[in-house]
């Protein structure tokens, strides 16, 4: 179920390199946006769910998983769930691709 209260333009498809995160700021929140090698787009709050925090945008994308840059946690880009044996939950935002425009729901 989509619970976004507002949708914000976040650039064009060609602005995002495959498997590389990019930070956009929406309503004062840093959002890490990822484009997979299959041209799927995902957005997570750019905050690691690890107790010590840290950025996610610099992580490595493989399939629909993100390997965070500080703790090597494996995070599902679709759900934000940290994979076992680690535990945690990243905040996920819906991404909308309309033609060549990218929008993110907050």
Brief digest:
With 106 residues, the protein is mainly beta. The protein has strands at 7-12, 21-26, 29-35, 41-45, 60-62, 65-67, 74-76, 92-93, 95-98, 101-105.
List the helices and strands and how they pair.
Blueprint lengths: L6 E6 L8 E6 L2 E7 L5 E5 L14 E3 L2 E3 L6 E3 L15 E2 L1 E4 L2 E5 L1
Antiparallel strand pairs: 1-10, 2-3, 3-4, 4-8, 5-6, 6-7, 9-10
Classified by CATH, the class is Mainly Beta
Biggest sheet layout: 4 strands, antiparallel
The number of helical runs is: 0
The count of domains is 1
Class from helix and strand fractions:
mainly beta
The topology string of helices and strands comes to EEEEEEEEEE
Q: If classified by CATH, what would the architecture be?
A: 3-layer Sandwich
Strand content: 35-45%
Task: Explain what this protein looks like in three dimensions.
- This is Nitrite reductase.
- It comes from Paenibacillus stellifer.
- Keywords: 2Fe-2S, Iron, Iron-sulfur, Metal-binding, Nitrate assimilation, Oxidoreductase.
- With 106 residues, the protein is mostly beta strands.
- It has one domain: 3-layer Sandwich (Rieske Iron-sulfur Protein).
- It contains no helices and 10 strands.
- The protein has strands at 7-12, 21-26, 29-35, 41-45, 60-62, 65-67, 74-76, 92-93, 95-98, 101-105.
- Strands 2-3-4-8 form a 4-stranded antiparallel beta sheet, with no helix packed on it. Strands 1-10-9 form a 3-stranded antiparallel beta sheet, with no helix packed on it.
- Strand 3 (29-35) and strand 4 form a beta hairpin.
- The radius of gyration is 13 Å and the shape is globular.
- The two termini are 13 Å apart.
């Amino acid at each position: 179920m989509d619970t976004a209260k507002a949708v914000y333009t976040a650039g064009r498809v060609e602005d995002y390199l495959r498997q590389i995160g990019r930070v956009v700021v929406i309503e004062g929140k840093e959002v890490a946006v990822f484009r997979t090698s299959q041209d799927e787009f995902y957005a997570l709050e750019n905050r690691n769910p690890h107790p010590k925090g840290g950025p996610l945008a610099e992580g490595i994308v493989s399939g629909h998983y993100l390997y965070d840059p500080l703790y090597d946690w494996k995070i599902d880009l679709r759900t934000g769930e940290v994979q076992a044996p680690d535990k945690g939950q990243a905040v996920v935002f819906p991404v909308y691709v309309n033609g060549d425009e990218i929008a993110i729901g907050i």
